[in-house]
Amino acid sequence: MGIKEMALEAKQASIKLAVASAELKNKALEEIIKGLENHKNQIIKANQEDLERSKNENLAMPLLKRLKFDEGKIEDVIQGIKSLIALDDPVNVTQAITELDDGLELYRVSCPIGVIGIIFESRPDALVQISTLCLKSGNAVLLKGGSEAKNTNRILYEIIKEACRKANMPEGWIQLLESRDDVNEMLKMDKYINLIIPRGSNEFVRYIMDHSNIPVLGHADGICHCYVDADADINMAVDIVEDSKTQYVAVCNAAETLLVHQAVAEEFLPKLKEKLEKKQVELYGCEKTRKIIDILPASEDDWKTEYLDYKLSIKLVSDIGEAIDHINQYGSGHTDAIITNNKENADLFMNLVDSGNVFLNCSTRFSDGFRYGFGAEVGISTNKIHARGPVGLDGLVIYKYKLFGNGHIVADYANKVKKFKHKKIK
Predict the structure, then answer these.
(1) Residue partners of 74: CB distance under 8 A and separation at least 6
(2) How does pLDDT run across 147-166, given as a tens digit for each residue?
(3) Confidence class of residue 206 from pLDDT cuts 50, 70 and 90?
(4) How far is CA 80 from CA 14, 122, 254, 322, in A?
């Protein structure tokens, strides 16, 4: 089947999926859980084949880490689906009611976006998270994973497709694209596809935006920061920075740059270095940092780099304003954290840092749809239109206006026979 046929089939299915009941969608999600549990060994075998081939092809280590889909990750996605089932259906929710006049009522009601095209690399767990979120939110989806995960993606797609067939979901709501040429074809399908969500580098996201008329919800680099303020609890700061950097390095919400107020640098930096060296983290620092601890020099490029590896760049700042300016200049608008006991500085940071997620006294790794209680996420948006931060169910619905009347005509209001009330009911 060609891309046009896939997109058309998905479009047709999306119309039926939009009115599927919460019970039917949850039944399909339960069938997906059964399918994952029953085919666990086959999934792991397919993933091992992908890992072995990718190692032979010298795939970068961060991507290899993302590619691994073992029993623990299968259990994680199953827990994510269970959380999704427990969430309220986001579709057909009345968000507002306005009485325009007697017997003339305007309702704003949530509805699915329609057909979503999602392009992602390496992570097979993303395929499960994305497809189940789209299912629960009533959207059809075209999925394009990286070729490095082709065997794992294929078996997961087949499991989800079969589970939904058993649950009597509309045929064709989920489609799997498998070649690089498919992406370019998909970008031309603005007649059928309502939204593209690319997960990758800034360059990749920009390429998608420049080569399609379809709206794009960009999820680009995760250049995340921790700022240790002058009024930080030093031991807390060490623990938070360590977790932000090393809990899992190959993800977009891992910290890549550390900013430290010069007033606490001499106490804080040696303690941090001792802890991170045990995790074999390579440290790069500005000139002032290197006068306190013996580490490699940082260049201008380090402030702009998403390492996705055991590397961290460090810069000393003279005050919180300098920290905020640095983040807003070099950050990607993803996730940034401040460690401080100073409420005024905390408020300043949380209000002025221009990112989708800003944290006080906690790890950047909390920036995640599952941890936020969204069930999962299709990505973390750095956009400022429609959805921002982890994009869960709420980010996958839009709304429509429904107007209920009883013979009302505009002429009566134009001729001032009648007047609008515009009374807010909800």
Answers:
(1) 36, 40, 43, 44
(2) 899 999 999 999 999 999 99
(3) confident
(4) 23, 19, 21, 39
pLDDT tens, residue by residue, 28-76: 999 999 999 999 999 999 999 999 999 999 888 877 888 999 999 999 9
Q: CATH 3.40.605.10 residue ranges in the chain?
A: 3-219+391-401
**Do residues 82 and 33 make contact, with C-beta atoms less than 8 angstroms apart?**
yes
Q: Give the model's confidence band at 384: pLDDT under 50 very low, under 70 low, under 90 confident, else very high.
A: confident
> Which alpha helices (H) appear in 292-419, and where do they start and end?
320-330, 343-352, 410-414
Query: Measured at the alpha carbon of residue 363, what is the angle toward residues 361 and 364, in degrees to the nearest 5?
Result: 120
Asked if residues 124 and 47 have their Cβ atoms less than 8 Å apart, the reply is: yes
Overall fold of domain 224-366: Aldehyde Dehydrogenase; Chain A, domain 2 (3.40.309)
Residue 264, both tokens: 């606490």
Rounded Cα distance, 218 and 195, in Å: 10
Token look-up 């060490």 returns 238
Residues of the chain with CATH 3.40.309.10: 224-366
Beta partners for residue 98, in sequence order: 106, 424
Higher pLDDT, 106 or 390: 106
Given 3.40.50.300, 1.10.10.10, 3.40.605.10, 3.50.50.60, which CATH number is that of 3-219+391-401? 3.40.605.10
User: Which residue matches tokens 């427990």?
Assistant: 86
What tens digit of pLDDT does each residue of 351-371 get? 999 999 999 999 999 999 889
Q: Give which of 230, 222, 193 is closest to 208, Cα–Cα.
A: 193
Cβ-contact 313, 223 below 8 angstroms: no
